[in-house]
Amino acid sequence: MGRRKRKIKYKDGDGKEYIIEGSVVDLSKGSLEELIGDALDAEDDDKIIKEKSKEIKEYIKINEKSQNKLRSWYELGKKLQFVDKLHLNSEEDRNEAFRRMFQDLKSSIWDTSDSKVIRYPQHMYTLSKLPEEIVFYEGMTWSRWFDILEYKAITNNMELLKDVIKRCTVENWSEEELRDNLQRLNKELDKNVKE
Predict the structure, then answer these.
(1) Residues with Cβ < 8 Å from 36, sequence gap 6 or more?
(2) Which residues contact 191 (CB under 8 A, 6 or more apart)?
(3) What's phi and psi for 82, nearest 5 deg?
(4) Taking the model in full, what pTM does it have?
(5) Contact criterion met (CB below 8 Å) for 145 and 127
(6) Longest Cα–Cα distance in the chain
(7) Each residue of 76-123: pLDDT tens digit?
(8) 27, 37, 85, 155: which is deepest, by most CB within 10 A?
């Protein structure tokens, strides 16, 4: 992804100082043509993000008191999939787009830390990519999903994920039991990867 715009101080030949909004270009990162293309792509992405931010803010305003948070946040995740069409090169770029969109919504919707304000849209986005029959398995809630989605290795292992969901709902795990089981499973997965 191209460098995002920022405020830059500039002095003209007469010594008059200006503050302009622009992008820093590092010519050691590629050809001028590629860098200009990246900058234009980034500018286009910024416009799309700003436009989608308005739509998402309106959606949240309408649905913030919804009784079915899981359905509301799943549908919001579907809306967040617009980032798949942007010129983003990595998960980090996608998360930056989410951060920029949700930063101003943080205090009004989720009274939480900066790190969590990013995780909400990340988790909604990831959740919306899963099959509905898994997401809306009887007994699953947004809170339970949030805890599960904290563990990418579990979320990305469909068989394990289905097993966790089934056990969590059938055995009616408390938040603490769910987190303990997720941590244990995650450690086992890490151990298997290292071996």
Answers:
(1) 25
(2) none
(3) -60, -25
(4) 0.73
(5) yes
(6) 75
(7) 999 999 888 887 767 887 887 787 777 656 545 555 566 666 788 899
(8) 155
> If you compute the radius of gyration of the chain from its CA atoms, what whole number of angstroms results?
21
Burial 29-52 (b: 16+ CB within 10 A, else e): eeeeeebeebbebbeebbebbeeb
Read off φ and ψ for residue 17, nearest 5 degrees.
Answer: -95, 140
> Which of left, alpha, beta for 124 (phi over 0: left; psi -120 to 50: alpha)?
alpha
CA 25 – CA 152 distance, rounded (Å): 34
| Residue 93: count of CB within 10 angstroms of its CB | 18
141 token code pair: 């809630």
